[in-house]
Write a structure and sequence with these properties.
By secondary structure, this protein is mainly β. Helices cover 0% and strands 14% of the residues. It is built from no helices and five strands.
Length: 100
C-alpha cells in the first residue's frame, strides 16, 4: 500500500477559491502562499491535524475564528497579507510556536 502524503502544496496558479475535495483530511502541512486569496478558505477547518499552515502573500484581512479549532497548529505563516483581525480565542492554539 502506498503512503499517504502529509503535505499539500497547491499549484502555482493563482486562485480565489481552493477546492480540497479528495484531499486526505490528515495532512499536516498546507502551503497556500501567493494564491491571491481574499480570505482563509472555510473548508480548511476539516484539516484538524494541520501543524504547519503557510498563507503568505495573499490579500487576507481576517484570520477566522475556526483557525482556533486547529489545535495541532505549530506554525501559522501569514506575512504579506493585510491582516487587521486575529481571532479572540487565538490562545486556544497552545502548540503554536510561530505566528508571522
Amino acid at each position: 500500500m502506498g503512503s499517504i502524503p502529509s503535505t499539500l502544496k497547491s499549484s502555482n496558479q493563482k486562485a480565489t477559491k481552493i477546492d480540497f475535495a479528495g484531499i486526505n483530511k490528515d495532512i499536516t502541512r498546507l502551503d497556500l502562499k501567493n494564491k491571491n486569496l481574499d480570505s482563509v478558505p472555510p473548508n480548511l477547518s476539516q484539516f484538524t491535524q494541520l501543524k504547519w499552515l503557510n498563507l503568505p502573500h495573499n490579500r487576507i484581512e481576517v484570520i477566522p475564528d475556526f483557525i482556533c479549532d486547529l489545535t495541532s497548529l505549530v506554525t501559522l505563516r501569514a506575512l504579506g497579507n493585510v491582516i487587521e483581525v486575529l481571532p479572540q480565542n487565538i490562545s486556544k492554539l497552545t502548540n503554536l510556536t510561530l505566528l508571522d
